[in-house]
Design a protein that fits this description.
11 helices, binds S-adenosylmethionine, Archaeosine Trna-guanine Transglycosylase, Chain: A, domain 4, seven-stranded mixed β-sheet, six-stranded mixed β-sheet, Transcription Regulator spoIIAA, alpha/beta, Rossmann fold
Length: 395
């Protein structure tokens, strides 16, 4: 008999409504002694099948749904899901880099696959998926014929699953550094040393928006700029850009990439804390036509937002608005699921009332289509951006 997990009465409702996770409180009984990481059958209290899931009793989320049917979960099943994910990304162009698999949203819980030209970078976040590493590598090779596959499973989430970080080549040849091409710009980055899997693919469409709005000679401040992707797009359209980041390696890459694209004269860097560097620019009486605020997640839980991060967001928005010329534009992003669009709006409104300016909303954006999200899984919507124009008090 296949191992199975029986849910408490009514606990199956959220899973039947396409929410993918069950917690310890949802489980009534475990039958057949499944190994941690195994695929189990999930049944409701009456014994009716709800689906199949990864099972890890040691994790705070013991069940992660794979399918609602009784279909066989084998190497072929993973390969089909990978193929479906790839087909979903057809039509993304102007770049050699994209997210190929976005975890739960692509029906592959805890699996991230990013493509950088001929190289694939894999991230495995849970024990269930960990057991399929070899099949995944085989399927990725068969489907995409990459030159190399690299693993960047160095995320905190693995600790809760009882897993150590795992970083290193999985197959073939992985050049380091490697090149990301975005709308004709070449970014040298590293899947070994870089943040995330090497590049912030999820801001691609916002970089394009900024580039489209730049007028030659515009002054652009790229705060939390990483390897300067926003700044270089702006510089390519004729702007002069300043990039702030606290990661010296990233700022080194900004300079290399600026030179590589013939934009060295147009891009400068400032190493240090974002808020301190913005204060310093204010003191120097520098003013900008565009400011991009793309901070790291900063919160995992809502509580942390209430307890201080909200204030930090208001502070950074206030500084950004002070640094903006009248008529200038602000890109204000958060990549943390617990921070909602309404929170960004509130922070911007509070900051604007301190600065005394009207804010015209030019756009609101979410993560791009290679990072899809599921309506019934709120956690899959993580990146939001509010784009506002600073107008004078007289407007
Ligand atoms: C979301 S990433 C920015 C991605 C970038 N905008 C892009 O499009 O590639 C956040 C960046 O903030 C930097 N960072 C984190 N905390 C910081 C701080 N207190 N001051 C300055 N930079 C910081 C990180 O090093 C990281 O490069």
């Amino acid at each position: 008999m296949r191992p199975s997990v029986i849910l408490k009465p009514y606990a199956e409702r959220k899973l039947r409504n396409f929410y993918p996770w069950a917690f310890h409180d949802d489980i009534a009984e475990v039958r057949g002694d499944p190994e941690p990481g195994a695929v189990v059958l999930v049944r409701d209290a009456s014994g009716t099948l709800v689906g199949q899931a990864f099972y890890n009793p040691g994790a705070s989320i013991p069940l992660r749904m794979l399918t609602r049917s009784e279909e066989r979960i084998d190497a072929g099943w993973f390969r089909r899901r990978l193929m479906e994910a790839a087909l979903r990304r057809q039509g993304i162009h102007g770049t050699n880099a994209m997210r190929l698999v976005h975890g739960e949203a692509d029906g592959l819980p805890g699996l991230i696959v990013d493509r950088y030209g001929e190289v694939l970078v894999v991230q495995i976040r849970n024990l269930g998926m960990e057991r399929w590493r070899e099949s995944l590598v085989e399927a990725l090779r068969a489907l995409f014929a990459p030159r190399g596959i690299y693993e960047r499973s160095d995320v905190e989430a693995r600790e809760d699953e009882g897993l150590e970080p795992r970083v290193g080549p999985l197959w073939g040849e992985v050049p380091d550094p490697l090149e990301v091409v975005e709308d004709g710009l070449v970014f040298e980055t590293s899947v070994v040393r870089g943040q995330k899997t090497g590049f912030y693919l999820d801001q691609r469409d916002n970089r394009r928006r900024l580039r489209g709005w730049i007028r030659p000679g515009d002054q652009v401040l790229d705060v939390y700029g990483y390897i300067g992707a926003f700044a270089l797009h702006a510089a390519a359209a004729g702007a002069m850009a300043v990039v702030i980041d606290k990661d010296p390696w990233a700022l080194g890459q900004v300079e290399r990439n600026a030179a590589r694209n013939g934009l060295a004269e147009r891009v400068t860097v400032r190493l240090g804390d974002a808020l301190e560097m913005m204060e310093a620019l204010l003191a120097e009486e520098r003013r900008f036509d565009w400011v991009v605020l793309d901070p790291p997640a900063m919160v995992k839980r809502r509580m942390e937002w209430e307890r201080g991060v909200r204030r930090r967001f208001v502070d950074m928005a206030r500084l950004a608005l002070r640094l903006l010329k009248e008529g200038g534009g602000l890109f204000f992003s958060s990549c943390a699921y617990p921070i909602r669009l309404e929170d960004l709006i509130e922070a911007a409104r509070l900051a604007a009332s301190d600065v005394g300016c009207r804010l015209l909303v030019r756009d609101v954006t979410y993560q791009p289509p290679d990072h899809p999200w599921v309506l019934q899984i709120p956690e899959t919507l993580y990146l939001k951006t509010l784009i506002v124009e600073k107008q004078s008090a007289a407007d």
